[in-house]
Specification:
The chain contains ten helices and eight strands. It is an alpha/beta fold. The protein has a single domain, classed as Alpha/Beta hydrolase fold, catalytic domain (Rossmann fold). The protein is globular and about 50 Å long.
Length: 325
C-alpha cells in the first residue's frame, strides 16, 4: 500500500466549508468521553444539514421501529429500513459509528435509507449500548442478539433467514467485524460483511502517511479520541487479555469468514490496521475486497458527499450490498 500524503481537493474544499459551522475544535484530553459525546451531538447536526442539502435521503423508504430482547429480558431498540415495494428477502444488520462512546441510530437514518433503496436490501439498524456505561461485551452482545432475533423472526420480517449479512462504519465497523468472528465461531453463517473504515485495533497504530501527528481541521477522529474510545470500552485489561471480538485486529484465525468488503482512506488513522486485516483475510483464503481511498480522511464521504471519491465509494458499497441479494 502506497499512501498519498495530500488530501483530496474536493474533500478539502468541503471540509473547509464546514469549518465556519463547527469552528476550529480544540483537542480534548484523553479520557474526556463526555466532552466528545457533547461535541459529537453538535457535529451531527452540522453534517445532517450538509447531507440534506447535497445528498438527501431517498423518500421511497419505509422505516419501522422495532425491538428485540436481550438475554436478561431488556429490549434493544431497532430500526428497519426497506424500499417501498421491494421484494428482496435479504437483510443486513447495520452498526452505527461513534468511537464506542457516542452515535445514534437516528443520525444514520439517511445512510441506512440509501443502502435500503439504492442496494434494494432490508437494513436493520441496532441501537446498541455505549461505553463507558456499558463496556465490552455489551455492544457485541446486542448486535449478536439482533442477528439471532432476525433469523428467528424471518417470517415476520419478510426475509430469508439464510440471507443475513452485517455492516457498519468506524466503531460500528469494528463491532461488526467482532460479531462476524463470533458468528463464525458459533456456526452462524453470514452472507457478507461490509466494514467501512472499521476501528479494529486497541493498540492505536500511527498513520504511515502523517506519522504520530495526524491532526488538524480535516481529522475528525484523532489518536487521542481513539485511545479514549478503547479505554472506555476495555478499561485496563491485563496484557494479552483483549478478546478478538472486541479488537478484531488481534484475531489469529481469519479463516472461514463470509465475503468481506473493507474501505479506508489513506489519511485515516485506521489505514494500516484495516489494510493489514484485509491482507490477513486474503492470506487465510478469504474473499475480501479492499478499497483504498487516496487523499481521504475518516468520514470523508459524510463531509464531502458530492465529491467524486465519495460518489464512487457509494456506488461500490451499493454494488457489494446488491451482491448479497
Amino acid at each position: 500500500m502506497k499512501p498519498t500524503p495530500k488530501i483530496d481537493p474536493q474533500v478539502r474544499w468541503a471540509a473547509l466549508r464546514l469549518l465556519p459551522t463547527i469552528g476550529l475544535l480544540k483537542p480534548l484530553p484523553v479520557g474526556d468521553w463526555r466532552g466528545r459525546r457533547e461535541r459529537s451531538t453538535a457535529l451531527e447536526a452540522s453534517l445532517a444539514a450538509i447531507t440534506q442539502k447535497h445528498a438527501p435521503a431517498p423518500t421511497d423508504v419505509e422505516i419501522t421501529q422495532l425491538h428485540c430482547p436481550r438475554p436478561d429480558g431488556s429490549q434493544i431498540p431497532l430500526r428497519l429500513y426497506r424500499r417501498r415495494g421491494s421484494r428482496s428477502a435479504a437483510l443486513i444488520v447495520y452498526v452505527h459509528g461513534g468511537g464506542m462512546i457516542m452515535g445514534t441510530v437516528a443520525a444514520y437514518d439517511s445512510v441506512c435509507s440509501k443502502y435500503a433503496v439504492f442496494a434494494d436490501i432490508a437494513v436493520l439498524s441496532v441501537d446498541y449500548r455505549l461505553a463507558p456505561e456499558y463496556p465490552f461485551p455489551a455492544a457485541v452482545d446486542d448486535v449478536s442478539s439482533t442477528l439471532a432475533w432476525a433469523r428467528s423472526s424471518a417470517t415476520e420480517l419478510l426475509i430469508d433467514p439464510d440471507r443475513i449479512g452485517i455492516a457498519g462504519d468506524s466503531a460500528g465497523g469494528g463491532i461488526a467485524a467482532g460479531v462476524m468472528l463470533k458468528s463464525r465461531d458459533e456456526g452462524f453463517d453470514l452472507t457478507g460483511a461490509m466494514l467501512i473504515y472499521p476501528m479494529l485495533d486497541d493498540r492505536t497504530r500511527t498513520s504511515p502517511v502523517a506519522g504520530p501527528k495526524l491532526t488538524g481541521p480535516f481529522v475528525y477522529w484523532t489518536y487521542n479520541d481513539n485511545i479514549t474510545g478503547w479505554q472506555c470500552l476495555l478499561g485496563s485489561p491485563a496484557p494479552g487479555a483483549v478478546s478478538p471480538y472486541a479488537a478484531p485486529a488481534r484475531a489469529t484465525d481469519l479463516g472461514g469468514l463470509p465475503p468481506v468488503y473493507i474501505e479506508v482512506g489513506d489519511l485515516d488513522i485506521f489505514y494500516a490496521e484495516d489494510g493489514d486485516f484485509a491482507e490477513r483475510i486474503s492470506s487465510a483464503g478469504g474473499d475480501v475486497q479492499l478499497h483504498l481511498r487516496p487523499g481521504c480522511p475518516h468520514g470523508y464521504e459524510v463531509v464531502a458527499p458530492k465529491s467524486r471519491v465519495a460518489q464512487l465509494a457509494m456506488q461500490q458499497r451499493y454494488a457489494y450490498l446488491r451482491s448479497l441479494n
